[in-house]
Amino acid sequence: WVDEQVKIDDNGTGKLVTSRKPDDLKAFCDAFLHVFAEGAG
User: Fold this and answer.
1) Rounded distance, CA 30 to CA 32, Å?
2) pTM of the full predicted structure?
3) In the prediction, which pLDDT does 41 show?
4) Three-class SS state of 31
5) DSSP class of residue 14?
6) What is the mean pLDDT of each run of 10 residues along the chain (41 residues)?
């Protein structure tokens, strides 16, 4: 566990985007959309 708004773990077969709590939802959504868009390209 890390004390960050968003953590992107890309050590596996894909990327895992996680966050700490509901207050971090905006940052999580921004990061998730960025990672999702990378996969589409």
Assistant:
1) 6
2) 0.80
3) 61
4) helix
5) S
6) 94 91 98 91 61
